[in-house]
Write a structure and sequence with these properties.
mainly alpha, Permease, single chain, 326 residues, cell membrane, globular, 74% helix
Length: 326
């Protein structure tokens, strides 16, 4: 059976259980531990809050992917390598493209002549600095709006620093794998009809990122339910340990940036605001799933160095922010 139809079937079963669970009277038929019921409640609250923003993000991303051409973006990039960093961040702020969708787009931009460091500024900034992510973060942290504003500000500064380091270390060298070794566009369906193409892109992207949202919501709800609150408070109280732990969690959860704020908000009160910001900034820039995508397109040595650059930069800036501004 086609994996797309399997995805639709699982989504249908999920919705049926959600809508008609009361009629099935599962609680009285099966002896379910109360902690599992608590975990279920937390899981659904995270997932259902995030879904509208994910749908909005993937649809706008699909429209951009279908109608916006790469050479159009290249026209706005100055030839001066330093000045080119700023419009690259602006491009990232305009387009709501998630961290998995941005990788093949950046690869195409680079093959069409965009400088390496400019492409990677777009890669790290676009998944954070866009209206959908700001809106979802604003909504998820309504009781502490400074998180939403700090996320945008830190992401802006960190993106510029990462771009400058990449230019200083690699210049405009070719870090792409040979043309025959990387994949074709992961969402290419060969449809000439623009509306159909947009819907196919949106559908593919939703199911690509939806599984990571499900996994992330499940892990977050499990941690909230079963892990000792005192242990989490001790873990997140350290000035260095808290951001490091949350960055590691962000990498392995691989949440889409339209939804990660809802998972991060469940850790509020257990981790410091700086640790939450480390999670919210680092995850969209580099995580497990976009690392795998980058290894398909770019040389492995470059990808590993890029991960080191992003990790070191985010951690350093977050610690400085925590020390001087919090």
């Amino acid at each position: 059976m086609n994996k797309t139809y399997i995805g639709y079937l699982l989504l249908f079963i999920f919705l049926m259980f959600f809508l008609f669970a009361d009629q099935l009277d599962i609680k009285n038929r099966i002896d379910i531990p109360s902690r599992l019921l608590d975990m279920n409640t937390i899981f659904f609250s995270i997932f259902l809050e995030a879904i509208p923003f994910v749908l909005l993000g993937v649809f706008i991303s699909a429209l951009i992917q279908t109608f916006v051409k790469e050479n159009t973006l290249n026209k706005f990039i100055p030839s001066n390598p330093v000045l080119a960093l700023f419009p690259a961040v602006v491009i990232g702020a305009i387009f709501p493209i998630c961290e998995c969708a941005i990788v093949p787009i950046v690869r195409r931009l680079i093959t069409k002549g965009m400088p390496l460091h400019v492409g990677f500024v777009i890669l790290v900034s676009a998944p954070i600095l866009n209206p959908i992510v700001f809106l979802s973060t604003f909504y998820a942290f309504q009781t502490d709006l400074s998180i939403a504003y700090a996320r945008m500000g830190l992401a802006f500064v960190i993106s510029l620093i990462i771009g400058a380091i990449i230019y200083q270390r690699f210049g405009n060298s070719n870090q792409l794998k040979n043309e025959g070794s990387h994949m074709t566009h992961i969402h290419d369906h060969g449809h000439s009809n623009k509306l159909k193409e947009t819907l196919y892109h949106a559908s593919d992207e939703f199911f690509d990122m939806g599984k990571f949202l499900l996994i992330g919501a499940l892990v977050a709800s499990g941690i909230q339910t079963f892990m000792s609150r005192e242990f989490l408070l001790d873990l997140g109280s350290g000035m260095l340990a808290g951001p490091a732990v949350m960055m590691g969690l962000a990498f392995f959860l691989s949440l889409c940036s339209e939804a990660d704020a809802f998972v991060a908000s469940t850790f509020k009160g257990m981790f410091s605001s700086s640790s939450l910001l480390a999670f919210l900034v680092y995850g969209p820039m580099i995580d497990l799933k976009n690392t795998i995508l980058m290894l398909a397109y770019f040389k492995a040595a470059f990808v590993l160095r890029f991960i080191l650059i992003v990790t070191t930069t985010v951690f350093t800036v977050i610690v400085l922010y925590q020390y001087f501004l919090v």
